[in-house]
């Protein structure tokens, strides 16, 4: 089963970028062989789609959802009746360029009978809002975010037919517990040594494994959490920067301002000015 607990623990720092969105139609002559470079969802509207991955063939019917993971190499084709589907390509990031899902397998098929109501609604809204593949309106983006949340929720509840039999073998014992602990205590002093002891690993191996799993070091993850909270607090122009520094775990305003500047490329004062009317 896909590790949804890990995603739940990372949600507060997660950003989703919808890169491309459009309706695709293919006839019997369609034969596609590619390797995915980003996360992709195909929501099948009409017809049948056959997907061959790892020498195994899977059939997706009208109403089914195909989830592709970066690195999936596949061959796709349809039958004499053709097919159509809505194509959505997106990125999951934490911070600026960190793909937190880069080592977690989420590719597979969700049968349509589990998610029909949500898929039908999304397709209806998509077709009414769509203008061009590159032009993604705020309303369409919002519809996609809600749809993606439903896809993941349904996958969590009923399961996904994975393209591969093997699931990700985590290198860090208790990773969900560790992330939950960080999320609840990042405003306090948390040492890497303390976290490594929680996972029963050496400090060096813990750092390497954590970074391999999330694409970000433990220290940087804690900074991500602090900066996210700080940016939310600074949206209130009446909040003092010194107070924010103390709330998010910095001993003085100077250290906080230096860290904030490095992360956002602007000072807390400059950031807060945009919310003064």
Compact description:
InterPro entries: AraC-bd, Homeodomain-like_sf, HTH-like, HTH_AraC, HTH_AraC-typ_CS. With 277 residues, this protein is α+β, with helices and mostly antiparallel strands.
How would you describe what is shown here?
This protein is an alpha+beta fold. Helix 1 packs parallel to helix 4 (about 175-185). Residues about 165-170 have low confidence and may be disordered. The chain is built from ten helices and ten strands. The protein has two domains: about 5-160, Sandwich (Jelly Rolls), CATH 2.60.120; about 175-275, Orthogonal Bundle (Arc Repressor Mutant, subunit A).
- Average of per-residue pLDDT values: 82
Q: What's the name of the CATH homologous superfamily of the largest domain?
A: Jelly Rolls
Do you know the CATH architecture of the largest domain? Sandwich
Helix content: 40-55%
Give a short account of the largest sheet: 6 strands, antiparallel
- Strand order in the sheet with the most strands: 1-8-3-6-9-10
Gap between N and C termini, in Å? 49 Å
Q: Unreliable stretches, pLDDT < 50, 5 or more residues?
A: 165-170
Morphology: globular
- The total of helices stands at 10
* Rg of Cα set: 22 Å
Number of domain modules: 2
Give the SSE order as H and E letters.
HEEEEEEEEEHHEHHHHHHH
Count of extended strands: 10
- Percent of residues in β-strands: 15-25%
CATH fold-level label of the largest domain: Jelly Rolls
């Amino acid at each position: 089963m896909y590790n949804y607990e890990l995603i739940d623990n990372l949600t507060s720092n997660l950003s989703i970028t919808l890169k491309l969105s459009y309706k695709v139609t293919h006839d019997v002559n369609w034969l596609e062989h590619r390797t995915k470079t980003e996360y992709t969802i195909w929501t099948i509207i009409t017809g049948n789609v056959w997907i061959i991955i790892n020498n195994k063939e899977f059939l997706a019917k009208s109403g089914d959802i195909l989830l592709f993971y970066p690195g999936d190499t596949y061959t796709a084709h349809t039958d004499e009746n053709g097919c159509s589907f809505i194509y959505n390509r997106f990125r999951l990031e934490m911070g600026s360029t960190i793909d937190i899902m880069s080592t977690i397998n989420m590719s597979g098929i969700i049968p349509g009978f589990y998610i029909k109501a949500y898929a039908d609604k999304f397709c209806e809204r998509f077709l009414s809002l769509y203008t061009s593949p590159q032009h993604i309106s705020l309303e369409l983006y919002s519809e996609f975010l809600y749809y993606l949340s439903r896809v993941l929720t349904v996958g969590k509840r009923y399961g996904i037919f994975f393209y591969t039999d093997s699931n990700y073998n985590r290198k860090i014992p208790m990773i969900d517990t560790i992330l939950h602990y960080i999320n609840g205590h990042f405003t306090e002093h948390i040492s890497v040594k303390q976290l490594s002891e929680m996972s029963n690993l050496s400090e060096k191996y813990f750092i390497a494994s954590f970074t391999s799993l999330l694409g970000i070091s433990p220290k940087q993850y804690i900074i991500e959490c602090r900066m996210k909270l700080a940016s939310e607090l600074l949206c209130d122009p009446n909040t003092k920067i010194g107070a924010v520094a103390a709330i998010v775990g910095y001993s003085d305003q100077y250290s906080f301002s230096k860290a904030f500047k490095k992360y956002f490329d602007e000072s807390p004062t400059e950031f807060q000015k945009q919310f003064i009317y």
